[in-house]
Design brief:
eight-stranded antiparallel β-barrel; 2 domains; alpha+beta; Porin
Length: about 270
Amino acid sequence: MSSPRSMSLMRRVCFLSGAAVFATVFVSAQSSISSNPNAQFSAGDSSSSAFQLVADDDVTGAGALHDAVAALNSGGAGQEGGHHGLLHGLAFEAGGGFNAPIGNDTPYITWGGNFTGGAGVHFSRRFSLLGEFQFMDNKLPGALVAAGGGQTGDAHIISLTADPVIDLFPKSSNSIYLTGGVGYYHKSTNFNIEECCDFYGYPVTVTANSFSSNQLGANIGLGYSHRLGGVYGDGTMKLFAEARYVYIHTPPITATDGLGTTELIPVTFGIRW
């Protein structure tokens, strides 16, 4: 029969052996989790690895930013990239210039100025569609003004048109493009006189006679554009200069509200993006 002392020593040995086995199993499990590539924190490890690769390859912050922007433009960044691509597809323009009369307009209208603004969509680098607003202000010849009973005169033309723009060399910084379209034109002809006087004693210009008309019209033109470089040479903003032929089917001179068809050459300088 074993003595109580030998039984106590045996229990101590068993207890210490069990504790050693448990510690070995626990350390082995922790080592397995750390070496498992599919562990819970693998995404964080991957991010750290990616950061380490960037540091090892000596990629600058500007280069990384450029790569991120390129990824967004390609739509590869998910939903945010898609929204950026939509905004990148919008087109805008603004410009101004002068108008020259041609055709049968010469006795009834003289030179003037114009303002043009528009917005639309870039369907591709080569093709865009713009909705354009244009305001043209032309003076009237002295003989016509006198016949109309005025001292001065002007013709105002407001148009809303749909105009495609076809870039012939979309990859070049300097390009030629074709444009044109159809839409609504409003023309008003005004004969003005000066009357006395305003509150401060200055003559006041008032309209003595006026007539207007609404009709369809069309335009076609040729333009030159220069693309601005942008930060990485990939800018989308362009300077442009263009000339168009505008034909408006205004009422004939025999009508009470017309001076015959209207033909003009508006020359416009502006910016498009």
